[in-house]
Predict the 3D structure of the following.
Amino acid sequence: MSFNSICTISFDATGTLFDPVPSIGGIYAEVLQEHGIFLTEPELEMRFMAEFHKSRSIPMESVDELREKNRWQTVVRGILAEDYSEEIFDNLWQTMAEGDRWKTKQRLFRTLQALKDEAFRLVVVSNWDQRLHRILSALKLTPYFERVFLSTELGLEKPSESMYRKVAEELDADPSTLLHIGNSQSNDYWPALRTGWNTLLLNNRIPHGMEPGTVLGSIDQLPEVLKSEQATR
């Protein structure tokens, strides 16, 4: 993989640009306590991960705001079972759109500014709904990105290769000039690679079966990686 032709860098959102504070389980525990439901952070984290992955096991062929919100309702119903209510869901839905529930990756602003200073186009490509716009704004990330591509706005979602093809089309860019950064092998790394993009997996260790040059240990390493490849603009 060569980065010499890179003009545009796209980023996944959750787990790549920012993380939940203190955790999804911690946020859910706080909100549920307001409704008289007391479950521990580890228990809620475990339930969330199980229900979330179940909900994403078969990607939707067509995605929009309503379908995405309905899917999240299914996730929360699975987590809470008989404790579920529409009031609790609405509280969780709005809470997760608040900027103070998320924390940007270390040295992210410095990294993004360094990339912009080198004239790279920066975009976001994420399986999110319109709440992401609010989060990016609250975290003061919006000015760094030329475009934000949401699954609910494109009607497509990762890991569909069609989503990556659609983004390339929207950017009027050859895939060989695009670099995608994300923390998921199945959603980010492999489908982007199969679509002809350059890609790096964000992970603090090298997963089994992957080569060192395909993994980015932390987001702030990206400018140096690109420089080491002597990328020409």
